[in-house]
Design brief:
Layout lengths: L14 H11 L6 H13 L15 H18 L7 H16 L8 H6 L11 E8 L9 E9 L3 H7 L7 E9 L9 E2 L15 E4 H19 L5 H7 L2 H18 L18 H27 L6 H24 L10 H15 L3 E4 L2 E4 L4 H19 L4 H13 L9 H4 L3 H4 L3 H6 L10 H15 L10
Parallel strand pairs: 3-5
Antiparallel strand pairs: 1-2, 2-3, 4-5, 6-7
Helix pairs in contact: 2-3, 3-4, 6-11, 7-9, 7-11, 7-18, 9-10, 9-11, 10-11, 10-12, 10-13, 11-12, 13-14
């Protein structure tokens, strides 16, 4: 049977209705009900195995007590989240059923379908979110997690969204959370929830306060280490959490809508398939560079206007800031975060850095980093054009030929691992064989760090590690 989303109570009407809904959620993080809920969810986690079930029958009585506490706390908190009434009611039913049926693999499809945060994009509005789920870049196990979140939706983003339509995008900041989010995870995606079948997903959320907080910490340290003289606008971001949060909202809303748009390979990377990891690098980088390109265009258009509204002035300000954020987050954090095992985001950061360096707009001279900022936009857009050209040609190529062309694009800028079979030229038996052979021949670290990034990694590692669990409130 098709899954039909349960209607939810949408906040509409008079401004005071919206203000009341915002006011009701304030202070929840210090309430006894939230603290009991958080403790109960955290206590369930060590009882659960990877799939979210609790197979140890001897633990069921204790688990049942925790579920009772959790459900009672949700019931107590529900009046403070009237816009989520249907979801919270469904959540309580799902928890009771999970316990009544003996704590098997949890199924929270009903409450997931009832949760529709994209319908409530109101700045400052809060949600109580409780699901058995894994947290991307956090825990790979489906544990019961509870998160208090707050929507970030400034007026200029609402205006921007009319042009860059993205009805699924939800921007959030953390208020409080259980251990699964005391990690590097900065997303809340419905596909991470334990459920019996997969519905059509209608939203995806990103925690811009975490993105902004770790950006500020990492870029501040990297600028000091590399002796980079930051432009005044970029320097302001390091001292202003809210300014940086809004910048990341603008970046992410354009990035997110870029997936599945444009001249794409017939099977975009989002479809589950095994392919060389540098294909994922190019797709994520393409979306970031599209955000960069669009912000250059927005800046040009608004700068040419004789007068600006307050909303347009804020949009212009953040269009400039997004350009700095894309460059610095990509080269200072992405490039050296995570392991060297098929690190596709890391590779994208390496590629952007080397591309700018080889085009003479980024300089490492006298152990100091510098940019020719007037020339940077054209160089970044040129890389975006190169990826777009690769994609445009892809529909006329066999899949493996597209993979080979993508590899050539990357290796034209980055030096492959000396042991690379791809760099030497794949043997005929692989070239004539199935795509699996191509992917198997890719090294875990096909494009190792350059000497610049090796040295930067050693100095930055403690800083990057310190950002796990960071929020706007703890930055």
């Amino acid at each position: 049977m098709p899954i039909t989303p349960t209607p939810t109570q949408v906040i509409v009407g008079e401004p005071e209705v919206v203000e009341d809904a915002i006011a009701l959620g304030r202070g929840v993080e210090s309430s006894d009900a939230w603290l009991r809920l958080k403790a109960a969810a955290s206590a369930l986690q060590p009882l659960q195995v990877k799939d979210g079930s609790i197979p140890d029958a001897s633990a069921h009585a204790v688990a049942g007590d925790h579920v009772d506490t959790l459900v009672a706390a949700i019931a107590e908190l529900a009046p403070r989240f009237p816009h989520d009434a249907d979801y919270l009611e469904a959540s309580m039913r799902d928890f009771r059923r999970w316990a009544d049926e003996g704590f098997g693999v949890p199924d929270f499809l009903d409450s997931l379908v009832a949760f529709q945060p994209q319908r409530h994009r109101v700045d400052g509005l809060r949600h109580l979110v409780v699901f058995p789920m894994y947290t991307q870049n956090g825990s790979s196990e489906r544990h019961v997690e509870a998160v208090l979140v707050e929507v970030i939706w400034p007026e200029f983003i609402a205006a921007l969204e009319t042009e860059y339509t993205n009805k699924l995008f939800v921007s959030l900041r953390f208020v409080d959370f259980t251990p699964g989010y005391d990690t590097n995870s900065a997303v809340l995606f419905p596909e991470t929830v334990a459920m019996r079948e997969i519905p059509t997903f209608t939203w995806g959320a990103i925690f811009q306060d975490r993105e902004a907080a770790r950006y500020r910490r990492v870029v501040r340290a990297a600028a000091e280490i590399t002796k980079l003289d930051l432009p005044d606008d970029a320097a302001r971001m390091l001292d202003d959490q809210q300014l940086t949060e809004k910048t990341f909202v603008m970046w992410d809303i354009i990035h997110d809508r870029t997936h599945m748009r444009g001249d794409l390979p017939f099977d975009p990377f989002m479809i589950k398939q095994r392919m060389p990891y540098f294909l994922y690098s190019l797709e994520e980088l393409r979306c970031d560079l599209t955000a960069f390109r669009e912000c250059v265009a927005i800046q040009g258009r608004l700068s040419a206007q004789e007068s600006l509204t307050a909303t347009e002035a804020e949009m212009l300000e953040h269009a400039r800031l997004v350009q700095y954020a894309v460059i610095f987050d990509r080269i200072f954090r992405f490039a050296i975060t995570g392991s060297r095992v098929r690190n596709y985001d890391g590779l994208g950061g390496q590629l952007l850095f080397a591309w700018l360096h080889q085009r003479g707009v980024l300089h490492w001279t006298d152990t100091a980093l510098a940019f020719d900022w007037d020339e940077v936009p054209a160089a970044v857009v040129a890389l975006a054009d190169a990826i777009d050209e690769l994609y445009w040609r892809s529909i006329d190529r066999p899949k493996t030929a597209h993979w080979l062309a993508a590899y050539e694009l990357v290796r034209a800028t980055l030096t492959p691992n000396p042991a690379s079979a791809w760099a030497r030229g794949l043997p005929d038996e692989i070239l004539a064989g199935a795509p699996k052979g191509y992917t198997d021949a890719v090294l875990d670290d096909e494009f190792p760090l350059s000497m610049f990034f090796e040295a930067l990694d050693k100095k930055m590692k403690p800083v990057i590690e310190s950002t796990a669990g960071i929020t706007g409130a703890t930055a």
